[in-house]
Amino acid sequence: MSLIFSILGILILLLYISKKKSRWIKYGQYRGSRHITINGHQYYLEKVKFKDYQDAIHHYFKIVADISAYADALEVRYDYYDWSNTIFRFEHTTIKLIRCIDKVLLIKSKKPISIEDLELDNSSFRM
Q1: For residue 4, what pLDDT is reported?
Q2: Per-domain residue ranges for the chain?
Q3: 124 contacts: CB under 8 Å, gap ≥ 6
Q4: If we measure between CA atoms, which residue out of 79, 57, 70, 62 comes closest to residue 108?
């Protein structure tokens, strides 16, 4: 009987692990993700929250490093004023990171698009 419960427990654990969504941002408290379409461009959005402003800044640079390690970027744009957003254009996708107080939002295009097109769609993204 205990063998049946052990097998059942292992199956439930494996099912839970297989259903867990893959995350791009590995830091912070996961606040959700969704898929949206704006002006014919499909995007994946992922949001995380940190304990405070300083923690968000600290981890933002780690997230930028993780994204830049994803592949060789064809083009990168930074906001040098307050490091509140960074955009990477890769061969197969374009990724934008937006930091606002204690949150970070990742916006990833399903297909490669120009940074200019992503910026035109930018007004529709909400933290």
Answers
A1: 75
A2: 22-124
A3: 36, 38
A4: 70
Rounded to whole angstroms, the Cα distance separating 101 from 53 reads 5
Residue whose token pair is 């049946």? 4
Q: How does DSSP assign 81-126, residue by residue?
A: TT--EEEEE-SS-EEEEEEETTEEEEEEESS---HHHHHHHGGG--
The single-letter code of the amino acid at 65 is A
At residue 4, the 3 state secondary structure works out as helix
Beta strands 75-78; 94-100: pairing state: unpaired
pTM of the model: 0.80
Residue 83 confidence (pLDDT) = 77
For the cut 70, the answer to whether the pLDDT of residue 117 exceeds it is yes
